[in-house]
Amino acid sequence: MSLVNRVLPGNLAGNEISDANVVGGTSPVLGKSGSTTIFAVYLDNSAGSGDAYLRIWDATSGKTNGTNPAHFIFYAPGNSTRMYTIPLGLTIDVGILYAGSNAAGNSGTSAPATTLQTRILIT
Fold first, then answer.
1. Quick check: 6 pLDDT over 90?
2. DSSP states along 35-52
3. Is 26 helix (H, G, I), strand (E, B) or coil?
């Protein structure tokens, strides 16, 4: 995992959460604490043929990947990249916890089969 937070100039999303290797397992990663709005999610799953999923919780702790239902799930088919834009934004009240998975939905704790990269644009 190599989590990076950076400030972006602009009017819509002023910050980026970037992770070059989204991990799986039972413990989600804290990307940001505090309220914010998600305006875009970019997933790069071009390194392998297996499908990958990014699960996001509106929380700063107390969630278990594979047990607690995620508030948002984003999908990246194998050998592809995906950009999800959310013009009105997804409101986050508490913080952003996230984890990767190779299983659809909320079950399973296995990490994506290959490296999944993400960039989350927030206020």
1. no
2. -EEEEEEEEEETT-SS-E
3. coil
- What is d(CA 104, CA 89) in angstroms, rounded to the nearest whole number? 23
Rounded distance, CA 53 to CA 84, Å?
13
State yes or no: pLDDT of 38 exceeds 70: yes
Q: Which residues pair with 98 in a beta bridge?
A: 29, 56
Q: Do 40 and 81 contact (CB within 8 A), yes or no?
A: no
| CB contact burial 33-47 (16+ within 10 A = b; e otherwise) | eeebebbbbbbbbeb
**Mean pLDDT, the chain, integer:** 93
Amino acid at 36: T
**How far apart, in Å, are the Cα atoms of 58 and each of 35, 37, 113?**
9, 11, 25
List C-alpha distances in Å: 88 to 12, 40, 123: 10, 10, 12
